[in-house]
Every structure is written in C-alpha cells, then in structure tokens.
Amino acid sequence: MADQDRATETATERTGGENPPPTDDLVTTAHSLDLGSRTLAYHATAGRMVISEEVVKDGTFEGRKPTAQVFVTAYTADDADPLTRPVIFAFNGGPGSSSVWLHLGLLGPRRVDSGDVDNRTPPPYGLKDNAETLLAHADLVFIDPMTTGYSRAVAGGTPADFHGYSGDRDLVGETIRLWLTRNQRWLSPKFLAGESYGTTRAAALAGYLATRHGLALNGVILISAILDFGSAHFSEGNDAPYVNYLPTYAAVAHYHGKLNGRSLHDVVTEAELFAEGDYAYALSRGSRLDAADRRNVAERMAGLIGLDTDYVLRSNLRIEHKRFFAELLRDRDLMTGRLDARFTAHPGDVQLADQDRDPAHAVIFFPYTAGVNHYVRSELGYESDFTYEILTDRVQPWSYKEFENRAVTTAEDLSTAMRTNPDLKVYVGFGYYDGATPFAAAERVLAQLRIPEEAQDNIMRRYYEAGHMMYVHEASRVAQSTHLAEFIDWATGGKTPELEIDRPGKSVGTTDDPRMMTPEPTSGATE
Length: 527
Fold this sequence. Notes:
- By secondary structure, the chain is of the alpha/beta class.
- It has two domains: 2-230 and 365-496, 3-Layer(aba) Sandwich (Rossmann fold), CATH 3.40.50.1820; 238-357, no CATH class.
- The chain contains 13 helices and 17 strands.
- Strands 1, 2, 3, 4, 9, 10, 11, 12, 15, 16 and 17 form an eleven-stranded mixed beta sheet that branches. A two-stranded antiparallel sheet has the order 5-8. Strands 6-7 form a two-stranded antiparallel ribbon.
- β13 (335-336) and β14 (344-345) form a beta hairpin.
- α2 crosses α10 and α6 runs antiparallel to α7.
- The radius of gyration is 24 Å and the shape is globular.
C-alpha cells in the first residue's frame, strides 16, 4: 500500500497538485472467427472513453470538462463498407449491470460456457467461439454504464450524478454520439439493444437521441422488456402485477410438472384469458366479491398455477412473485428461480414464506464472472486493476426523481420515437420462464403504445421456452440469434419476417376473444 500511495503522490507532484487529465486507454486487437461457410476477420477495441460535458459558468463558455470514463468493447468487421454496415449499441440493465451478459452470452464473437439447468458447467468454466454471433451481420459496441464493468467517474468526479434515470441515459447517449462521431459512422444503420432495465434505457434513448441529437435509429432490440414498472412491480393498491404475472406462474407450473397432460401453449392461452378476464374482474371487486365466487376464482387460479386453493384464498387471490417461487415446489423441498424459473435449489429453511435468494443467479453469475475477467485481459489485451463490476449495488440508491409519485415508464419515449420515425423497427424477445420481467406485462404495455395502428406492424415478437436471459437455454440461444439476424435484415431494407411466431393465445384482445363478449364472471357474480 505504501508503494501505491507513493506512486500517487509522485503523479500528483508532477501535475502541480492536481490529478492529471484523463485520456482514452483503448486497445485494439485483430481476430478471426470460423462461421462455417466463411471466415470472419474483425478487430476488437476495448477500453475506457473519456466523456466530457460542456461547461458554461455565469454565461461564459469554459470548455469541456471530463466527467466519466466509460468502458466499451467494440467489434468491427474488416473490409466492410461503413455506409451500409449496421452498428448495434448494446447494454444490460440492473440498474448496476455491466454488458457482459449480452456480450458473452448472445451477441459477441466469444461466449461463456455456462451449461444449462440440466447440464451445468462446473468451475473453472470456459469460453467458446460463437458461430451464431450477430457480428456476422452488424458491428457491435458494448457499453458499461457508470460504476459497472470498468466504467468510473473521473478522479474528483461524482458517480452519483450518473446513478439515476436521466444521468444514466444521458451518459450512455453521449457515449453513443461520441463513438459514432469519432469512427465516422453517422451514416451507418444504427440499432440499440437492451436487456431488462436495459430495455427501459433503450426506449428512453430512442426518444432522447432523436430529440437531443437528431439521431434516427433503424431498430431497437428489447430482450426481457420492462417499459412500465407499474405493470410488474408489486405495491399496495396496484393489482396489475398480479394479473400480468399469472401467465408466467402457469408456464412455470407447467414446466415443473404441475399441469401434466397439457401443452405449454394451451396453458398459457387459458391463463391469459383468465388473468385479463375473470381474475382481473374479481380483483377489482374486492370485498364485493361473494364467498362462492371468490372460491370459484381461487380454484381456477390454483388449477392453473399449481398451488393449493386454500393458499390462494389466504393470499386474498394475490400471489406475490417471490412467494410463488417459494411455494410452488415446497412439497419437494425446493424453490424455483426468479431470473430463470427452470432452476431450483433447496431453500435451507423449507418454511420460508418468500424466496430469499435466486437459484438461477449463482449458476449464471459465476461462469460469466470468470469468463469476462479472463477474456478482457487475455484475449482483448486490456489491463486494469479495477474490479470488473459484473452486477453491483454500488449504483444504489438509483434515482428516479423524474417519476416522483408515479410509476417509472419509458413507453412514451418509444412511442415518440416510432411516431417521429415511421421506419423504426422494434424486436421484442419474451421468456416464458422469466420471473423478473413477465411476458404478459410487456405485451400489455406494447399494446398500449400511443402509435398509429400501422406502426404495430413494425414490432417483431419472438417467444422462448427460457428465462430472463433466454440464451442460457441453448436451443433458445440459437433460435434468438437467427431471429435477430432476420430483424437486422428487415430493419435495413430486407425481407419482412413473420411478426409473431410460437405465440399461444394469438386471439387475445381480438374480436374472437371471449373476454370481448363476456363481461360477467363465469360463476355469475352479481352486484
């Protein structure tokens, strides 16, 4: 420690008692990847970009002041025309997550060998070539928001300035603007890709980049979307999450063998019809729902989600998600995962009312942590003694001051971007076993976007029998890679794909939806 302190003192002495100005520390390496039909040659550039802000004090312009050093990893194909080559800016969520999951799980040229629920890879894990990488179709830029990955505030700076909705959005937006400018890529087709809170950020950026920088996107990729927190965050007096989670509960119960003899699609279809129809009506009735109708709803609900009718009744027909994950397999002394409900673990205390840890988290977290720490230094040549923050609570408390007394939502930002840019395409990927961002909640928000009816035809939906990070499931990873390649092609003038496939309950919300014709509960409840 004494040597480190002395080195810091010496550097300070050389700069007159001030920290030296930060500089970019980017490292570029050359690589190639066998795609089967061809070899892809590409360059990777990893390191921290210095982000500055313009300073005006008392009406006087004082220049640009460095505020942050943002870690990016950019992949660019060799011998490609930058005027036609798409570029995708990708990030994960949290808040507090680095971009490692999309980077080494789905999109990048290398991927983590994490195994899956029935074939877990033991330590020390490893990396594989990703023959399905989206780099075969577009250049990729992975961005780590403030205090994630190696991104940090400059010396003397304030990280909390970027630990919140607007500060985070603006920092990532400026990183995108600066990368495009420095790399002369403003005329390239441009995409955003986000997962989880990254979809909240992506929707916000779609509107912000258009209004602040006049930047029109070709496409936005939303994986495990959450565009309106009120649709999925449990709080007193808000029944929307109970309605929106019920189809996910049904899918999870089906996966774990609680609904034998039925297909997943049939189960999800019935669950959606029940959730948005009789169940939503019953919740709205509250104490006005008589005992017979309450039991009828509880029995139907229990039959769909694999729980005991009396448990549903004791819960006042409202099952919070962590309670569901703790209760579903209690008879087997197991709890299910939240990020991916296919995973299970012994809870330690079999009497726990709520899930206190996520069985899926550690199985996924460990191999990605090992993979990225090896990869960045050993293969990309970037060296740093900072901790690469995979998923950190150092960003907390996260500020949502812009949404005081209302739910956080970026649905209108996405709507604005789609209205002002009619050519903008949107991909949405849903996981049936995702217990963090339920698919029915995202679907409801998409259905309520304030866009012209014809703009709904600019949204491509894909559904996977997987969890929050659906690429952990190998078949879903391969399928999703194909779907994203089709989306990029479509959004850059290519063939229009089928907009919705592998989707149960496609009649939901249409004129042949039973809910559109049956206003009363099936049990015949009266006022």
